Amino acid sequence: MKPRIFPVKAVLFDWDGTLLNSFAADERAYRAMFEALGIKFTSEDLARHYHPDWYRVYRAAKIDRSRWDEADHIWRKAYARESPKLLPAARAVLRNLAKRFTLGLVTSGSRDRVCIQLENLQVAKKFGVRVCAEDASRRKPHPAPLRMALRLAGLSPEDCVYVGDSPQDIEMARRAGVRSIGIPGPFPTERGLRVSRPDLLLDSLEDLPAHLVWMPEEAEIKGLTVSKQAAAPKKKKKKKLREKAWHLRQR
Question: Does 40 share its domain with 156?
């Protein structure tokens, strides 16, 4: 079978579960938070109700809204003891792609946490644009975060692909007119990811570079299945990419 090729200028990524192996840390912090609040919510419950927007998890656990700030504080304190690492191949893939494309991050994670992790893992400079939970008016699967990243980077939807591990990632990309690539990760989202039908579903992050080519080379591609964006008309952009460092408030 011919590989499916995406001509692009930029690759935008989700963070948790796509590049960062963080589900175990996330789950431990949730368990500590539920225990401190006296709420019975098992690991199986968390897997069943998991969502990138943690307030949806709070609702599923029936945490009273008046206690959400307290829940955030407990979760933060518990998560601060964790040190999740990059997923296998993530560092090599980012190094490879950064030589050819603009890279960006669109995540539901809070600014302080994500930026600290990027610095500690020495990959912060790979991302020319970062949009985190506090930056956009709405959260995934709403397209607002991805549209903000496009605006900051001076890019059109057809210039990019978005890479994520959850159905919310795929829905956000689709609603923003951006092609999507799904890669199952450690979070309990694989079934939903497959059902969401991304434009391309890969088994591993290390397979990603082989499916991407710099957009101006599109006319030179022969004998390959080329995936073009048809959801939005192409717009000319003259703005250069400006690095956006978003230093975030902790969850």
Answer: no
